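Hey, resending since the last one bounced:
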Amino acid sequence: MTFDPRSLDRLRSLGRQLPQELPKPIPSKNKEPNKKDKLHPIETEKNPQALFEELIKASPDGNVPGHLLARLQEIEINQLNSKSNSPNNSKPNKTKPHSKSIKKTNEELLYASFDRFLLEEED
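The structure tokens again:
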């Protein structure tokens, strides 16, 4: 394809007016923030009472997602297990056999589940 001299000059002048490519951004070495800085207390809390308080503070209407309730329950179970495995409870106790403490823990979990069920039905 051939251009006449006038068209060729016009194309050259338009080419000078086109925007130039922006310079590439310099990648920073510390682009990703530290994960510990991003984590909310709900994600890091190990105390069930404090976690419950954080969940209530974070929820404007009192509804808490199921995965967070599961995490709270898991932490409660771990705390109960750690209490039952503490050095004071490792010695055999004649008044409270090990099976009774497990039964009591299961009863507490069932009671908590039943209590949550009642609260859900009220809504």
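The chain has a mean pLDDT of 76.

Sorry for the duplicate.
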